């Protein structure tokens, strides 16, 4: 694709470097910004700069946060005794949109995947065990994707949590095998949270 402007080309290359955005979509975005007022474009650009420079991770649950402790962990109306374990921030957003989970979260930062060189020590598993050990946790919900990596991570965490006298459950398989949580519709995901099952029963199937 040839451009009459190097500046346009640079903007298109920047947009198209993002996942899921092709050159044509990137060009439409760049041209749309050209039509905006200067202060609007500055505000648009600054929002990304602020996000990159100021965003941090919650010291409790490892979720993306604006402060040391995220709003969910700080919310005293949430059930402080239930932790829902997810792979990343997108899964928190997906589950929150169902309004069915009233407890807290723990974000692993990925899934165990030897093929990709991701070991248990690369994830936020040790901090999860520490939370269970130091707090009055009654249930840990494993809300990981129904994939080989998700099942491997589920089993590893289950073995680590087995010594504790807590309920360990997993979301029901209304979520199709191989599906990522972020792409599951809200109704199906919400029902899978409500109708979660003991992890032990899943191992017997």
Question: Which labels suit this protein?
Answer:
205 residues, alpha/beta, Helicase, Ruva Protein, domain 3, Dna Topoisomerase Vi A Subunit, Chain: A, domain 2, 2 domains, 5-stranded mixed beta sheet
Describe this structure in words.
The protein is of the alpha/beta class and 205 residues long. The protein folds into 2 domains: 6-54, Helicase, Ruva Protein, domain 3 (Orthogonal Bundle); 70-204, Dna Topoisomerase Vi A Subunit, Chain: A, domain 2, CATH 3.40.1360.10. It is 45% helix and 11% strand. It has helices at 6-16, 23-35, 38-54, 71-74, 89-96, 125-134, 148-161, 186-194, 199-204, and strands at 56-57, 64-65, 82-86, 104-107, 139-142, 167-170, 197-198. The chain has a 5-stranded mixed β-sheet with strand order 4-3-5-6-7. A two-stranded antiparallel ribbon has the order 1-2. It is elongated, with a radius of gyration of 21 Å. The N and C termini lie far apart (54 Å).
């Amino acid at each position: 694709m040839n451009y009459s402007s190097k500046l346009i080309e640079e903007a298109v290359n920047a947009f198209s470097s993002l996942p899921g955005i092709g050159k044509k979509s990137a060009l439409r975005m760049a041209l749309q910004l050209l039509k905006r007022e200067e202060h609007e474009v500055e505000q648009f650009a600054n929002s990304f700069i602020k996000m990159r420079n100021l965003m941090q991770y919650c010291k409790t649950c490892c979720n993306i946060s604006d402060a040391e402790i995220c709003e969910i962990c700080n919310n005293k109306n949430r059930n402080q005794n239930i932790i829902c374990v997810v792979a990343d921030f997108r899964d928190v957003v997906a589950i929150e949109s169902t309004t069915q989970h009233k407890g807290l979260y723990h974000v692993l930062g990925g899934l165990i995947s030897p093929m990709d060189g991701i070991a248990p020590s690369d994830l936020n598993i040790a901090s999860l065990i520490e939370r269970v050990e130091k707090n009055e946790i009654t249930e840990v919900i494993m809300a990981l994707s129904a994939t080989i990596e998700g099942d491997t991570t589920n089993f590893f965490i289950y073995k680590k949590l087995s010594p504790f006298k807590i309920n360990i459950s997993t979301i029901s398989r209304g979520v199709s095998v191989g599906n990522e949580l972020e792409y599951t519709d809200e109704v199906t995901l919400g029902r899978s949270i409500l109708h979660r099952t003991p992890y032990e029963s899943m191992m017997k199937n």
